[in-house]
């Protein structure tokens, strides 16, 4: 199973792991980050979340070759706090979020994430959920589609794309990824087609909407901060500006001194923030990593630490 973990060293180093750390990997995927974590916590324990049964099956075997001090939880990381509490865990030392779709999910045509390969429109991370990309494309009103494409894909041509989708589905349902990609291509100017794949932003938007990715991220970040132990670290890898904005704003919110107190010569200790940024700016992949893995080009890593 070919998947290259992005910002692997930087994100794991950012977690500041000890041998006995209790660690949560919110996005197990195919186990790249979890494997590295497990190697560093011989006396600790790893709790890893994922919704994808195929990824869980693969990673379970991979992690078992390293140790048995891990628990895989088949759940959305929006349920992070609840699922850990079920297992008696109320505080953890480190939490990782790698928010990218894994390469196998993108490359395996039958998952319906790719605009390069033909497959049924799907895009569900959790195959047990009801709503799929097919439902969105074929049943949502034109205005709803345009809003989704603009809000979650930042697509300038959202209205013309939505209009053409609705026109096409009047003839027959839009059933496959390449069929949708072709409609999108014919809905944007020629110059846009040359710059990058014209379907990229719309496919991103549909995927985010189907899986409630931004809503889930906001919930999970808040819960992650609430269960982090003192001196604990959180590493978050994002892959587009919408995700990064949520992480950046949340981290800013919990690390800034109250505006009213900023002018004081000596801020009372109890009024100081509970968290601090480990790096002021987002960390980007190195040139070497980008040469090995071009899909890492949009990745950003942000790290935060609880100080009290």
Automatic annotation (TrEMBL):
The primary location reported for this protein is cytoplasm
Q: Which GO terms describe its cellular component?
A: cytoplasm
Is Nucleotide-binding found in the keyword set? Answer: no
Q: Name one GO biological process term.
A: rRNA base methylation
Q: Name one GO molecular function term.
A: rRNA (cytosine-N4-)-methyltransferase activity
What start-end ranges are recorded for coiled-coil regions in this protein?
none
Show the catalytic activity. cytidine(1402) in 16S rRNA + S-adenosyl-L-methionine = N(4)-methylcytidine(1402) in 16S rRNA + S-adenosyl-L-homocysteine + H(+)
Q: Where does S-adenosyl-L-methionine bind?
A: 31-33, 50, 77, 98, 105
Q: What's the domain of life for this entry?
A: Bacteria
Q: Where is the signal peptide?
A: none
Location(s), subcellular: Cytoplasm
What keywords tag this UniProt record? Cytoplasm, Methyltransferase, rRNA processing, S-adenosyl-L-methionine, Transferase
Which Enzyme Commission number(s) are listed? 2.1.1.199
Name the PANTHER family for this protein. 12S RRNA N4-METHYLCYTIDINE METHYLTRANSFERASE, S-ADENOSYL-METHYLTRANSFERASE MRAW
The entry sums up its family as follows: Belongs to the methyltransferase superfamily. RsmH family.
> HAMAP family, from UniProt?
16SrRNA_methyltr_H
Function statement: Specifically methylates the N4 position of cytidine in position 1402 (C1402) of 16S rRNA.
Protein name stated in the entry = Ribosomal RNA small subunit methyltransferase H
Q: Which organism is it from?
A: Candidatus Faecenecus gallistercoris
């Amino acid at each position: 199973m070919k998947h290259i973990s992005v910002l692997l060293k930087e994100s794991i180093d950012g977690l500041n792991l000890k041998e006995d750390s209790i660690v949560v990997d919110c996005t197990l995927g195919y186990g790249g980050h979890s494997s590295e974590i497990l190697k560093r916590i011989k006396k600790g324990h790893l709790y890893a979340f994922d919704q994808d049964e195929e990824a869980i099956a693969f990673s379970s075997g991979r992690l078992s070759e390293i140790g048995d001090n891990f628990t895989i939880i088949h759940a959305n990381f929006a349920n992070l706090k609840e699922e850990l509490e079920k297992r008696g865990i109320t505080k953890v030392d480190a939490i990782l979020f790698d928010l990218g779709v894994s390469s196998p999910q993108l490359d395996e045509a039958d998952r319906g994430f790719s605009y390069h390969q033909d497959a049924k429109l799907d895009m569900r991370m959790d195959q047990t959920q009801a709503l799929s990309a097919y439902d969105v494309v074929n049943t949502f009103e034109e205005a709803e589609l345009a809003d989704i494409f603009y809000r979650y894909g930042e697509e300038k041509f959202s209205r013309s794309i939505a209009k053409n989708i609705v026109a096409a589905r009047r003839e027959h349902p839009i059933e496959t990824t390449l069929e949708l990609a072709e409609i999108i291509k014919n809905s944007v100017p020629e110059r846009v087609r040359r710059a990058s794949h014209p379907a990229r932003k719309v496919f991103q938007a549909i995927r985010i909407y189907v899986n409630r990715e931004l809503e889930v991220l906001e919930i999970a970040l808040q819960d992650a901060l609430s269960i982090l132990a003192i001196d604990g670290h959180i590493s978050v890898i994002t892959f587009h500006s919408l995700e990064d904005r949520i992480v950046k704003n949340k981290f800013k919110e919990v690390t800034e001194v109250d505006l009213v107190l900023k002018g004081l010569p000596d801020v009372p200790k109890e009024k100081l923030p509970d968290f601090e940024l480990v790096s002021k700016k987002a960390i980007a992949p190195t040139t070497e990593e980008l040469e090995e893995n071009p899909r890492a080009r949009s990745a950003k890593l942000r790290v935060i630490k609880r100080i009290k």
